[in-house]
Amino acid sequence: MTARDTHRVPTGVGWTVDRDDGGTRVYVARLPHGPIHVLDGTAALIWLEALRQDPSNLSTRVATAAGVPEEALGDDVTRFVADLVARGLLTT
Fold first, then answer.
1. Which Pfam families does the entry link to (predicted)?
2. Torsional class of 38: left (φ above 0), alpha (ψ -120 to 50), beta (otherwise)
3. CA 18 to chain centre
4. Is residue 67 in a domain?
5. Which of 3, 18, 82, 83 could pair with 56 as two cysteines, CB 3.0-4.6 Å apart?
6. 26 within a domain of the structure (yes/no)
7. pTM of this prediction?
8. Residue 5's pLDDT band (boundaries 50, 70, 90)?
9. Phi and psi (nearest 5°) for 8?
């Protein structure tokens, strides 16, 4: 991925965010038949950060927001975003 690539939600996918005392959850589904995927914790954080304008430092932003060293995430952020793309929930 280059710095100019951005992730976006493709046509036919719906999503919403729920924030409460239990944390942040993202509900995302291919419409109209689903299934609905519930992303919480770090998964929700990765989703929200992936949709920001600049994807070049995604792992750094996720680590900072989660309060962990970037090394602790390893390649997990990249693999998770690749999985979302493979499922058709995100595109570039």
1. PqqD (PF05402)
2. beta
3. 14
4. yes
5. 3
6. yes
7. 0.87
8. low
9. -145, 165
The SS3 of residue 58 is helix
Cβ neighbour number for residue 65 with a 10 Å cutoff:
13
Q: Determine the structural domain holding residue 51 and report its residue range.
A: 13-86
pLDDT for the residue numbered 14? 98
- The 10 Å Cβ neighbour count of residue 31 is 11
Q: Is residue 8 part of a domain?
A: no
- Residue identified by tokens 């970037």 is 70
- Model confidence over 47-78: pLDDT tens digits? 999 998 677 789 999 999 999 999 998 789 98
Number of residues in the chain: 92
pLDDT digit string, tens, across residues 16-42: 999 998 889 999 999 999 999 999 999
CB-CB contact of 81 with 50 (8 Å): yes
Q: Which amino acid is at 14?
A: G
